[in-house]
From TrEMBL:
It comes from the Bacteria. InterPro entries: DUF6879. Residues 11-169 form the DUF6879 domain. This is DUF6879 domain-containing protein. It comes from Nocardia terpenica.
């Protein structure tokens, strides 16, 4: 099995057909999110749309050339502070062209312990984090057939169970 270590955006930019992301953690330690997340917690004003512009533009470029951008978030209910914030931020993901779905952890059954991207049904990209859960900014990449097949089956199973973002927001805000 071959594993490479590469930056996420570089790998995602190579997508031709589909980029699927499975997220299974209730919080993430991404340094670039520290300030906006803290402002959210403190109910302070912040221009989230402007802050998110880089990612939104990236997603729009990929979807404009026909790449399907999909994401399933397996989350604990009640939501963690980070998940409450990510529900607000997901509106910008969807606006940029992502199809995001939510699946409460208690309904998900057996899920992998790690987040990963499945690119074009042939490459799996594992997010890397340090021992404290903070992102290290890189990824482990493999094209191993057994790993790819496993990730495809997880994606297919969870996708049909998960609720699209607009429907999930409507139900959780009632």
């Amino acid at each position: 099995m071959s594993v490479q270590f590469r930056p996420n955006l570089e790998i995602l930019a190579e997508s031709q057909h589909e980029a699927f992301h499975l997220e299974v953690r209730d919080s993430y330690g991404v340094p670039s999110e520290d300030e906006p997340f803290q402002r959210f917690l403190n109910n302070e004003p912040f221009d989230y749309r402007e802050w998110f512009r880089g990612w939104s533009g990236f997603v729009q470029e990929l979807t404009a050339r026909g790449v399907s951008f999909k994401r399933v978030r397996v989350i604990t209910v009640p939501h963690s502070d980070y998940q409450r914030w990510s529900l607000v931020m997901a509106a910008f993901n969807v606006e940029a062209g992502e199809d995001i779905r939510y699946l409460p952890r208690h309904l998900a059954g057996d899920t992998p312990p790690d987040d990963w991207w499945l690119i074009d049904n042939k490459t799996v990209v594992f997010n890397l984090a340090d021992k404290d859960g903070r992102s290290v900014g890189g990824s482990a990449v493999t094209t191993d057939h057994e790993i790819v097949s496993y990730c495809q089956s997880v994606r297919d199973r969870l996708w049909v169970l998960a609720t699209p973002y607009p429907d999930y927001i409507r139900v959780t805000s009632q």
